[in-house]
Amino acid sequence: MGVKKQIAVLPGDGIGPDVINQAVRVLDTIAKKYQHDFSFQFALVGADAIDKTGDPLPKATLDLCKSSDAVLFGAVGHPKYDQDPNAKVRPEQGLLKMRKELGLFANIRPVTTYSALHHLSPVKSNILEHVDIEIFRELTGGIYFGKKETSADGKTATDTCIYHVDEIVRIAHLAFKRAQERKRKLTLVDKANVMETSRLWRKTINEIAKDYPDVEVFQMFVDNAAMQLIINPSQFDVILTENMFGDILSDEASVLAGTLGLLPSASIGTGTAVFEPIHGSYPQAAGKDIANPSAAILSAAMMLDHFGLHQEAIDIRNAIDWIICNGFFTKDIDPINFYFTSTIGELVCDFVTNRVEDAIHKANIQLRKSTII
Ligand code: IPM
Ligand code: MG
Q1: Is CATH 3.40.50 the classification given to domain 131-251?
Q2: Which pTM value belongs to this model?
């Protein structure tokens, strides 16, 4: 018999619902195949939640997250807030509060490239060979959560970057353990030539490294890391870094994959873990069935790994590999001959249930009919 899991689903804004619906559909298919009992409870977050309740993370949503086994998160953000620097309430506050309240101190962002998609990246194909990186970004500390203020005259603003050693230690152990399962290389990215917090990171990592003698440790300044990610990305295995550097470098690294639409993430810590695509809400595409659901579906695979359901996660990753190898691309990848968001979701389900084989009829898929003849 399978396992029973309650999953909180927070689709959020823009294309969030489009891609999350497909991820839920895939999880449902996995549950049927392996006789698991997955239940899905939907809740509000982001601009959608502000419109309906005035709060980007209503208490009911947070309570649901806390009492669930995992959270599947879409995206938050709406242009009407981006254009208003004086907005008191912002969709992003919902995401930041959720991370803090659930104690999600580690954000894990894998970056892989597919040779079928190398042409999409502005980086040359030969540089993209063998790129396989996992970014461990600290998620509940640093400049994101340090004291912020604007002076009374409105002319001076301050953001404080603050880290306690314990905040570094807990994510460092996760990153070192992950490196041990991978290529046993860990690169700490910081700005230790300038920042006191970075010097604390370096000192702490040097101490912890003694517990992991099989892991080779590299230290790199963030400005250099930004360059190395483009000129020689295959040198990296696990990258460990603080909150803001991780935010910036993970967007940069996504360029290697050719599209943001493929990159999933997991945020883990002391409370319920959250799984979300790294892309944003892309409001222009909302509801058009054109967004790439792969990042959301791969985030669901990371959730299954987190549940210890590794074969189930492999099924999903194999399905996405198969989709890419067979040229079933969404509009972000192929703006002319593209498949719909829902068709990709259907194809993943078909693959997971072994219903594809040679029976795929591309013409029918294009017409959005059944994928199987
Ligand atoms: C991310 C996003 C968020 C962040 C925003 C939406 C607050 O860019 O998850 O990377 O900066 O952490
Ligand atoms: Mg970001």
Answers
A1: yes
A2: 0.92
- Determine the Cα–Cα distance for residues 311 and 56; give it in Å rounded to an integer: 36
The number of the ligand 1 atom at minimal distance from the alpha carbon of 250 is: 10
CATH 3.40.50 domain locations along the chain: 131-251
- Ligand 2: centre distance to CA 260 (Å): 11
User: What digits encode the pLDDT tens for the residues 167-215?
Assistant: 999 999 999 999 999 999 999 999 999 999 999 999 999 999 999 999 9
Q: Can you give the C-alpha Rg of the chain in angstroms? A: 21
Ligand 1: which residues within 6 Å by Cβ?
A: 92, 95-96, 247
What is the strand order of the sheet 274-277 is part of?
37-42, 4-12, 70-75, 274-277, 264-268, 106-112, 132-138, 238-241, 185-190, 216-221
- Cα(251) to ligand 2 centroid in Å equals 6
Ligand 1: residue whose CA is nearest its atom 7: 92
Beta-carbon count within 10 A of 287 CB: 12
Tokens of 167: 């905040």
> How many angstroms separate the alpha carbon of residue 173 from the centre of ligand 2?
23
Query: Domain 1-109+259-373, what fold?
Result: Isopropylmalate Dehydrogenase (3.40.718)
